[in-house]
């Protein structure tokens, strides 16, 4: 069953721009430009894209903060803006750059206030809080005022407050931003458990590709408001991760000058040459066989593309370019 369903979802903003010395013109800019996405119950979806792609705008429409300009949208069977109050009981929201905790109160008080806001029965609240305290290791700072918490401690508090009313969907916007390595790992471990338990649907936006690699089985990538990829991380690797790097050290400085399909030289300094090969056209073995004609090889390393390489290629790909191209006028 789909907990989120968007079809042809669009959001336009009107911006004013200088037009001449004293005049300004108004222009309509589509921040989200016809997004189709369906998220199943219990799924953890990574929602990815470069700066300004439209991720936050989509999240704001999903959570009832912004009204779509056009398109169909249902979240938990509700229309987010008109049914915002009912929706709020079914969703949890965490924005990495902001907090929903009460700044001057001890952390524990924010949890108590959340219980009253969501009218959660005391026993249910206590049981859930016990579980979250344990999973997120909160006990060392429950009585500390929020403003004195470290960023990592605050994020654990924010996750708790977002989950205390047992929402069906959790929206996470950059939950690991600014966290140190240890805190990032703690948040990811918690989200992995939440995903594996399977009773909370999670939509995650992040620029941290390690988050994606650890957590997301499915990725939707948008660029300029349009979906340019919807599939697993493995699909993404298969589509954009075919280039491997082959670093070769020769016994002596060499001149490498040959044409080989699917091979290009990335850099060449003395006895070290770095090649980039397209795995759909040739293999590292074929390259090495050809290279041994240039001189004896001392050492060789083959590097698989990292997720950064894959995503960089996707952002530069023709489909992402097409998302950027203006609509033909007519
Ligand atoms: N209130 C607004 N008024 C006008 N333009 C806006 C408004 N909010 C967003 N935009 C524009 O819409 C586009 C999408 O912005 P959005 O914040 O959704 O991107 P994003 O993918 O979340 O980016 P980032 O990764 O940098 O947070 C951008 O071009 C942005 O400038």
TrEMBL record:
Superkingdom, taxonomy of origin: Bacteria
Signal peptide (residue range): none
PANTHER family tied to this protein: ABC TRANSPORTER ATP-BINDING PROTEIN (PTHR42711), ABC-TRANSPORT PROTEIN, ATP-BINDING COMPONENT (PTHR42711:SF1)
Mode of membrane association: Peripheral membrane protein
Protein's cellular compartments: Cell membrane
Name of the protein in its database record: ATP-binding cassette domain-containing protein
Keyword line: Antibiotic resistance, ATP-binding, Nucleotide-binding, Transport
Organism for this UniProt entry: Luedemannella helvata
One annotated GO molecular function: ATP binding
ABC transporter domain residues: 4-249
SUPFAM superfamilies: P-loop containing nucleoside triphosphate hydrolases
Pfam families assigned to the protein according to its UniProt record, in alphabetical order: ABC_tran
């Amino acid at each position: 069953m789909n907990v989120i369903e968007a079809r042809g979802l669009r959001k336009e903003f009107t911006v004013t721009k200088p037009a001449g010395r004293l005049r300004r013109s108004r222009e309509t800019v589509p921040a989200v430009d016809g997004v189709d996405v369906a998220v199943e119950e219990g799924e953890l979806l990574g929602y990815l894209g470069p700066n300004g792609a439209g991720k936050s705008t989509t999240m704001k429409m999903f959570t009832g903060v912004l009204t779509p300009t056009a398109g169909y949208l249902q979240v938990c069977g509700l229309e987010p803006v008109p049914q915002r109050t009912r929706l709020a009981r079914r969703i949890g929201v965490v924005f990495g750059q902001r907090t929903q905790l009460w700044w001057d109160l001890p952390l524990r008080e924010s949890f108590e206030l959340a219980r009253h806001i969501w009218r959660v029965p005391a026993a249910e609240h206590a049981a859930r809080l016990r579980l979250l305290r344990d999973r997120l290791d909160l006990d060392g700072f429950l009585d500390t005022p929020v403003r004195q918490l470290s960023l990592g401690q605050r994020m654990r508090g924010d996750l708790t407050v977002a989950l205390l009313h047992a929402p069906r969907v959790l929206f996470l916007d950059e939950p690991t931003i600014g966290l140190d390595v240890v805190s990032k790992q703690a948040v990811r471990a918690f989200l992995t458990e939440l995903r594996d338990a399977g009773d909370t649907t999670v939509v995650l936006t992040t620029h941290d590709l390690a988050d994606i690699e650890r957590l997301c089985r499915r990725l939707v990538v948008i660029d300029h408001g349009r979906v340019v990829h919807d599939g697993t991380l493995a699909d993404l690797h298969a589509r954009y991760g075919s280039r491997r790097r082959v670093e070769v050290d020769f016994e002596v400085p060499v001149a490498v000058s040959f044409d080989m399909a699917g091979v290009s030289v990335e850099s060449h300094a003395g006895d070290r040459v770095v090649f980039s090969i397209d795995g759909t056209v040739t293999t590292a073995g074929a390259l090495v066989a050809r290279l041994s004609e240039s001189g004896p090889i001392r050492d060789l390393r083959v590097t698989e593309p990292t997720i950064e390489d894959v995503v960089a290629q996707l952002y530069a790909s023709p489909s992402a370019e097409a998302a950027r191209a203006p609509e033909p006028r007519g």
